[in-house]
Write a structure and sequence with these properties.
The chain is an alpha+beta fold. It is 35% helix and 14% strand. It contains 10 helices and 9 strands. The longest helix has 16 residues. It is globular, with a radius of gyration of 21 Å.
Length: 281
Amino acid sequence: KPAGRSYWGTAREVLNLLNEALALGISISSDVYPFTRGSSSILSLFPPWTLQDGVNSLLRFLRDPETRKKVATDLERGCPGWESRVAIMGWDRIWIGAVKKKENGWVAGRSVADSAREVRLPPVDFLIGLMLSEARDFSYTGEISSLDDVETMMAHPFTLVGTDGIHVTDGIPHPRLYGTFPRTFDLFVKKSRLLSWESAIYRMTKLAAQVFGLREVGVLHKGYYADIVVFDPENISYEEAYNRPPASETGIRHVFVTGKAVVQDGKLTGVVAGRVMRHKR
């Protein structure tokens, strides 16, 4: 979906290109999740020239006073061939998601702008200082999309529903990791009626299996893997909450993976029944 305020409202242009490709017989689709914030590695905010060796080269450039100045400038303004994510989102729309050091724990869930004000530093200096303190990659969330564009993308018949989730062991994950499917039902089936129940489920299951070339999954059929979710349509929902741990109450009652109960009555059973799925045509 279009990312950054300067691109909001261009979803239809993107879909026009997709439709042109489909008309030419090209196998193409799109996927979306029902949140306006995205999430990624904090490294994605830094200019590519600083990431030759990943975190190690970035830290080396940040520790050198001269190259640090150039990193700070490019971080906020961009450089030839690369558009700054900070420039298209703004420091007040970038939130720290997960950090490891206890002394930095207070920034989790707070925007860079707010955290910088707390310690009386320019936002770019605050983030660089945090990067040097952590000396490792960590996640962030950023306000990248408009809800109108998300709805436009969701309405397209070849759009899948996907979480794009990043699991984190420290801090707070993006709610898409747990809430993508319940929120899709709540927003686009129950409230806006953009999708029917059947269409929403089809995008999450059968269409997804077809696009990825996965056999014997995606539909309830004799001889197929029994991957089944049982949910309460009246109560299925997920709140768009970014600064607290994921809620367990979503309206999902039971989950079966390869016929084994991994969730019963809304509680994890401890059974691990997942498997590697291979692309087949």
